[in-house]
Amino acid sequence: MPALKSFSLAICVALFASSASAASCSDTGGRYEAWKTEMAAEARAEGVGQRGLAALMGSSYSGPTIAADRNQRSFRYTLEKFMQVRGADTIVSQGRSRKAKNANLFAAIEQRYGVPAGVLVAIHGMETGFGGFMGDTRIVSAIATLTYDCRRSAFFRPHLIGALKLVDEGAITASTVGAKHGEWGHTQFLPGNALIYGVDGNGDGKVDLNNLTDAMASTANFLRQKGWRPGAGYQEGEPNFAVIQQWNAATVYQQAIAIMAKRIDG
């Protein structure tokens, strides 16, 4: 019995220590400054360096990010309505032109990763209107806010660590802007994914997802690493549709990308 009691006590102490060390989330911005200090200690323990920590401590709570996170109505539309609202016909029309204009780039990417141009072009058009608008929100502040917020804290936390490590590497800075959820570049990579799947497509020695070549190559690399099978179909019910599902969790988004990509690829 004494041994069992000691073992139980050890478990309770361990659980208390674990909960005490975790940065606490909140549904309002009132504790954000205190949370940053808690989160910085955790980030340091996970290998984030001084530049990344400074970026976190210099971040600010982003009200517009929270507003955007609470208002994603387009994903609840029917497929027909979603494609209309997101401008599918325009994406296809412009996408065909962009595919032809950058034929050598897309041929090289398909040869290396096995992902056809239509899929990459459709994602590019859907995410940023072919680079027309890549965001106006500081990436670190956006991701930190979403990690601090209780709704999806566990999902965004690895992306916050990723963002801070990207700062350490010099890929982004505390001032680099992206979309409201902290997505970066032409195809809107979340920072944790950028850290893992980002590649130097143009050979200049750095990964810059605001560069079209790097962004297209990185998107293809993400899809390939998620299981893309070169030459296999990507429409709903075909092998590679499951990989498109890894890019975005919304069913109408997945369906729209597959349909537009097929039209772009002809």
UniProtKB/TrEMBL annotation:
It comes from Pseudotabrizicola sediminis. SUPFAM superfamilies: Lysozyme-like. Residues 1-22 form the signal peptide. Residues 33-234 form the Transglycosylase SLT domain. The keyword Nucleotide-binding does not apply. InterPro entries: Lysozyme-like_dom_sf, MltB-like, SLT_2. Keywords: Signal. It comes from the Bacteria. This is Murein transglycosylase. PANTHER family: LYTIC MUREIN TRANSGLYCOSYLASE, MEMBRANE-BOUND LYTIC MUREIN TRANSGLYCOSYLASE B.
